[in-house]
Amino acid sequence: MIRLRFAPSPTGNLHIGSARTALFNYLYAKFLKGKFILRIEDTDILRSKKEYEEDIISGLKWLGINWDEGPGVDSVQSYYQLDRWKQGIYNQYCQQLIEEGKAYYCFCEQEEKDKDPLQLSYKYSGKCRTLSNEQIKENIAKKIPYAIRFKVCEEVVVFRDLVRGDISFDMALNGDLVIMRSDGMPTYNFAVVVDDMDMQITHVIRGEDHISNTPKQIQIFNALGKTPPAYGHISMILGPDKAKLSKRHGAKSITEFKNEGYLPEALFNFLALLGWSHPEDKEVIFQEDLMTVYDMARVSKSNSVFNIEKLNWLNGQYLRSYTAEHIYNISSEFLDGFNKSLYNKDQLIYILDVIKENLNLLSDIPTQLAVFFTTQVIYEKEHVQLEMIPMIEKFEQGLRDLEFTSEVISEYTNNFVKENNIKKGQIFHNVRYAVSAQQKGPSLFKMLQVFGKEKVCQRIGNYIAYVKTCSGS
User: Fold this and answer.
1) Considering the domain boundaries, does residue 80 fall inside one?
2) In which domain, by residue range, is 252 found?
3) Is residue 67 a part of any domain in this protein?
4) DSSP output for 239-293
5) Is the distance from CB of 178 to CB of 147 less than 8 angstroms?
6) Residue 407 within any structural domain of the chain
7) Is there a contact between 8 and 56 (Cβ–Cβ < 8 Å)?
8) pLDDT tens-digit profile of 380-426?
9) Which pTM does this prediction carry?
10) DSSP 66-78
């Protein structure tokens, strides 16, 4: 059975980079018809916090990334590293390596173990490799702090990366690895091997910053007599200026994107395309479709560029594809600031249908809605066209006799511009400005229908009076 995992540390909120890693593993698991596992690596006791774990879990669920095994899913085993440590799982495998002569007690002082001021890179000398059992027992009896080191085989480790092809590392350049610290906690490279082994993980997709960890983990797998998973290392995400992605590029936590009015479907789609391309070069792709084509062979080796403008465009594409009723149902927090007594639910849904072509984010809704809730329209002299006033007066008179629907108003306007030999844009501009004091906005005829005949005629009359006052006539 194909099994992939996402294993975050709850030391911060779920951000773009981690979310993309989760998504790549999730989609590739679904593509291979396998399982996706969520594991919480919480052995960093000082920095791990429950609120970060909750943010990670809620962010993944909001994006639509659901796990087959992990927190919240019934299981005979725990998917929290701290629980597994308390159960003695890491110590059990550590003792196995010690008994088989593949790991050893190391009593060296920290500065002696890891630091040589004459070298730019540090490699442990292996000083404690040759300690006798008597020396080890004596040091333990003296309560000298110790770590456990794994004996690195000085060989060239070659592995086939799912993204980058063959990668080789000369392990002779590495010293023996600490796998258990003096406080009894496993190090990352050891804990992740034990967890992946116990959870039967077959494929690991992660960031390229982990490439140097892979040969170390492969050696530990081999020492424990297990086959390592297949590894794939995805590129970094950069800003448009090709610098490391940061807040100034628009990168935020997933919760922040949610609160700013982004849709989970759009962000999911956007993240899936950060370093991967659809076989037909599609850009708007629903999750169900991605699952059928998400082959790692299409992942790029090059760094990905985070383009907030593209995300906004993509979000707008999804929004405009939805019904106004669906937008109403998912945008309650952005509607709360309006006096809903002015319009009933059906009217609000109609207004959302009127404005949705101008939406990129749900958070655009308040700005676009404002015109429908404004009771005082304020004009500016530079936007008025005095010469059009006679025509606007005539246009307003004709409105009074209409059935006030957008279709009837549109037909009336088309006939009016033909009969009076004027450009449609002249009427559009002046009428829009008269009723809303805006240069642009939603569909004019639908907007007029929402306002109703009485309010439209009243505002046009106010506008005419304002222009005449400004001109002194």
Assistant:
1) no
2) 1-71+235-321
3) yes
4) -TTSSBP-GGGT--BHHHHHHTT--HHHHHHHHHTSSB--TT--SS--HHHHHHH
5) yes
6) yes
7) yes
8) 888 888 888 999 999 999 999 999 999 999 999 999 999 999 988 88
9) 0.90
10) --SBSTTS--SS-
